[in-house]
Structure of beta-N-acetylhexosaminidase:
Amino acid sequence: MLIFGIGDLQKVLESDSMLEAYSKNYLGGIILFEKNINKKRGKHHLKILIDEVQRISQIPSFVAIDEEGGKVNRLKPEYGFHQTKSAKYLGQLNNLDSTYHYAKLTSSLLKELGINVNFAPTVDLALNLENPVIYKYERSYGKDPEKVYFHALKFIKAHNENNIITAIKHFPGHGSSSTDTHKEVTDVSKSWIIEELFPYQKLIDEGIVTGIMSSHVVNSQLDDSMLPATLSKKTLTTILREFLSYKGVVFSDDMQMSAITKHYGLENSIILAINGGIDVLLFSNNQTAKNKVSPDQIISLIEKNIEDGNISMLRINESF
């Protein structure tokens, strides 16, 4: 139930502690970032890295990436990969065949490389033109929930055809926010609208959603305790699981974002997230050395809190 970033690694080092944990099945998988890509021989070196990581693991594991297209794109043309288009561009073009075409190119590339999870597409609505994390980076197909649904559907279908898991995000909606959860608490209580659930409901009803990623936004319309969605049982269990009837995997957004770490602490946030409904905890480790966490550290915290009765063993079993 853990996915970790692997630091600056571009090749497997048997002595690396992260990969040592991976070999012992402590991790459910890894997430790749641009820094893991060799700038001169991108595709060749990345495939070798992924093959080696899977070889080290004793069981098939998640190899994840954020490959939305446009400005959120790890596999850039300058490293030898194809050009991508942003969700904003495709939404404005509003040609579903084009959205499918670019998604098929991306999913085919991921399959070739051995990447099996794409944390995309974004189904946030473009409700705030000053949004610093969604609209600014052209990550939304638009403000019309039906349009967002249709384009996301094409994106997911193209990935499913290549057996790539997708994770629609950022539940229950980040499009109206005016601040960035990477940096601070983001409260959408006054700006969030119920229509932001529409793409989730429609895609879940289609039966093709393989993953959903939570957001760290606070939304008192859904949980008056003012917990971020990632830590909120009302949001993840009552709304997502029960009201929307979602049965698949729930990934957390990065547990090391400031919206979480500065206000809830590592141990408390892990307890709340697991009990609330998160199946897979994501730790990017894109931090300074003193703020990085190790798999051993997280596993020890989880085991301790299971023993102390703070984490439900039922939730651990459900996550698998």
